[in-house]
């Protein structure tokens, strides 16, 4: 690990403490071609697959007939009513395997989501049938509310090169991949429809196209046990074939109406007891390295649908408390973010100096350099992910010649509107952290890897 010193400032608490405003929108329900035993919802219930009628995002989307334009406008207005600035948006497209949907529908959906932000506050009545996504992308480059991240959910077998080419054209920047397990016997047991081979291939395809990769993992699936679950997590973060940038940990729930529920009724499946879950989840969190962010602990499933599984109201807080009792340390990104340290633990950062710390690791046939800006107390202010891609990159602009990829650049702390500056020492954006990270990445790419293109 190498460090370089730079000098900077402090923080002010706000709900948008990771630097962006998340806006989740949902695609319309369609019949799912897959039949995973644990998965609830679906078109027959009037929801996208894996979501339930009273899931929070469904309750917002369904009354608006899943119209992307109206969903975005409604969410922006909610944030503004709560006095949160909306300038940099992380747009999250939810609804199962998004890349299995028709291409023309996705163009219409994403185009109208962008159009809503571009039009705001002078909005129309809803989505346009003849929206031009390329025009809306260009408009957004100068809009007051800009999309700085666009993400979707999909499966490993729907993250092949042709899907990735479509995602790039639509503007996506992060992909959440439903991995669930890295054991082929478990995937067969729950009729997932793909194997571990597809997970490894999808991860490489995505990283070599400069994507940030987030895994969904499900401890507690039929055929697994606590020891295998913990070993799975350790493998994911140490085997170069995996090594995602972030994870969502979804402990297995037995949900009414699923095939797993029928197995549970027949006594063929039982979840772990709560003490085991607490033990396991604390050790899963402790196994996450500092270059990974745990995006979420637990599915947003209303508990009255759940008949078995860890029914913890605030799962992340329970896990962190359990870690404290066991003397385990949390070093993943969110635990160290400047905003979360202040808001969650009341720790006011007073750094004597800021440093750029570097971690190198091999992953998916390429070389990863993780840069982070930290202070003396390991508070995190910003990150950058630099990748030297593998020789198997499918995109010609990446494959031909020595190119380095910036897969992520993120400065934490409360969102500061685009173009704004402040002398308030509690605000960290627009203070040169991003520029310092980019300069270091460019130096590394050129001097160490002879990469003349970024």
Descriptors:
single chain; 454 residues; alpha/beta; Aminopeptidase; Transcription Regulator spoIIAA; seven-stranded parallel β-sheet
Task: Give a description of the structure.
There is one protein chain. The protein has 454 residues and is α/β, with parallel strands linked by helices. It has two domains: 3-11 and 348-448, Aminopeptidase (3-Layer(aba) Sandwich), CATH 3.40.630; 21-336, Transcription Regulator spoIIAA (2-Layer Sandwich). Helices cover 33% and strands 20% of the residues. The chain has helices at 56-61, 68-81, 103-119, 133-140, 161-170, 184-189, 196-207, 226-236, 259-265, 274-286, 315-326, 333-336, 338-345, 396-399, 433-449, and strands spanning 3-6, 21-26, 88-94, 146-154, 174-180, 212-217, 246-249, 254-255, 293-297, 306-308, 354-363, 366-375, 380-388, 405-411. The strands form three sheets. Strands 2-3-4-5-6-7-9 form a seven-stranded parallel β-sheet. α5 links the parallel β4 (146-154) and β5 (174-180). It is globular.
Report a brief summary of the structure.
Helices cover 33% and strands 20% of the residues. The chain is of the alpha/beta class and 454 residues long.
Kindly report the CATH topology of the largest domain: Transcription Regulator spoIIAA
CATH class of the largest domain: Alpha Beta
Number of H- or I-type helical stretches = 15
Q: Which term fits the overall shape?
A: globular
Structural class: alpha/beta
Q: Distance between the terminal alpha carbons, to the nearest Å?
A: 23 Å
Order of helices and strands: EEHHEHHEHEHHEHEEHHEEHHHEEEHEH
Q: How many domains, in number, for the residues?
A: 2
What's the overall average pLDDT, rounded?
A: 91
Strand order of the largest sheet: 2-3-4-5-6-7-9
Radius of gyration, Cα only, in angstroms?
22 Å
CATH architecture of the largest domain: 2-Layer Sandwich
